Amino acid sequence: LAYCGHLRTIRNHLACLVDSKAVVEETTGPVNEDFWKECRNSKSEKMEKEFLSRTYRYGINGMEPSILRRKVWPYLLGLVSWTEDFEQLKNTYRAKYYNDVVEWEKIEKIIRERDQEAFAAARLRYHTFNTETNVSFQETSLNNEVFEESDETDRGEKNIEEEDLLAKFSANLHRIEKDVERCDRSSAYFAKKENLQKLKTVMCTY
């Protein structure tokens, strides 16, 4: 009896988890040009829900799917809200993107110069060490000494926040470059060097 009572309790709990309302299939077919035009004319919450439902269940398809996807994805990614017109904002986003690229390329230039200076200092230290002592170069002491001296000099000359920004961006830049180099070159897109540069630019910007 105790066991039956326990099962009855479990059944009651499970019943509370089940929605008794029937699932009615209200949307059919993928998002196409006609439906998308209707969505942009209405911009209502109801149309947004139907748009998301169609997209997740049936995908995006039409006379020219690639063109339609370029119009749809900014809304799926949350780049713009449902009530906004992406075509009107596109030039604004494009200008901001290229301004951001210019800004981080300035930082990249500083990082490249520092890398070259550090490498030159390391080579000089290596040759000086070998000439004076005639012993093999100990790699474990090179990098730490070079960068420690560089850091001490920079801290006295520049703002700490700028140094922190440079350090973080430098670390991310080197990670991104490694990730880009590991792209599958058997893919037609990544087989082209200019496309690898595009990927690096996008990743560094965002």
From TrEMBL:
Protein name: Rab-GAP TBC domain-containing protein
PROSITE patterns according to UniProt: TBC_RABGAP
Domain Rab-GAP TBC: 63-206
InterPro entries in UniProt: Rab-GAP-TBC_dom, Rab-GAP_TBC_sf
